[in-house]
Design a protein that fits this description.
Order of helices and strands: EEEHEHEEHEEHEEEEHHEEHH
Strand order of the largest sheet: 5-6-4-1-7-12-9-13
Radius of gyration: 17 Å
Structural class: alpha/beta
CATH architecture of the domain at 11-132 and 172-198 and 218-230: Alpha-Beta Complex
Length: 241
């Protein structure tokens, strides 16, 4: 009888290179992941959560105002190593992932990929226990969806993205478990600049290579002012390490 062992990666890749155009009316001199919440950068809360999940090193993909991130965190944060991969020209989320994978430790078969502007405290053990394909997405169940495209799932595989619905559905929470070697190979087939969400994931799903992991944790994307202003409700002061 075979025994399944949960995948527990020790490295997280965080996409933190967006321009934050929609948030510019609230914060204009900081990259979006550095937006302050209770006097601390949003990105600190994100990294703190994943340290608590057992992650030991981070690769931060930076772009617009990226020096604000690297100067704040430096080479280590709370004893965990941080590597920076900076975009000199915009690569899109897909191009940023391709570049970041080259900076991942060579001994890591899997990494966690995260959006740097999304609070979605997934449990790594739970995510790793459902992974059986090269890429597994943590999906957030929504009772009332007004902003996001829905994800279609069949037998724990994602089959399509972007379905329009205002009722109960599953959405992409921006948290992925990635098998490094096959995904690094797949992203080489795309142009220099491409979108993870619009280009890569739909193609991978159509080939049956994307798994689904339902994770009903709290969810907040701070990409628009209204939601950023709610972040203090999701990230209480007591989360300070």
């Amino acid at each position: 009888m075979s025994i399944y062992i949960a995948i527990t990666p020790k490295t997280a890749v965080i996409l933190a290179g967006g321009f934050g155009t929609r948030l510019a009316s609230v914060i204009s001199d900081l990259p979006k992941p550095m937006a302050p919440v209770h006097g601390r950068p949003f990105l600190e809360y994100l990294i703190d959560h994943w340290i608590g999940q057992g992650v030991e090193s981070f690769v931060l993909s930076t772009g617009h105002l990226g020096e604000k991130i690297s100067s704040h965190f430096g080479p280590t944060y709370r004893g965990r190593a941080i590597r920076y991969v900076h975009e000199t020209t915009p690569l899109g989320t897909g191009g940023a992932l391709r570049q970041a994978l080259l900076a991942c430790p060579v001994d890591q078969s899997h990494v966690v990929l995260l959006n740097g502007d999304t609070w979605y405290p997934v449990e790594l053990v739970s995510l790793g226990s459902t992974a059986s394909l090269p890429l597994t997405i943590a999906l957030k169940p929504m009772l009332d969806n007004q902003r996001y495209g829905a994800v279609t799932v069949d037998q724990k595989r994602v089959t399509a993205f972007g379905a329009q619905t205002s009722g109960p559905c599953l959405i992409n929470g921006g948290c992925y478990l990635i098998e490094v070697e096959p995904i690094a190979e797949q992203v080489q087939n795309y142009p220099q600049r491409f979108s993870l969400e619009q280009d890569f994931l739909p193609q991978m799903a159509s080939n049956g290579m994307v798994g689904a992991s339902l994770q009903d944790a709290s969810f907040l994307d701070i990409g628009i002012p209204e939601d950023y202003l709610r972040s203090s409700e999701f990230l209480p002061v007591s989360l300070n390490p």
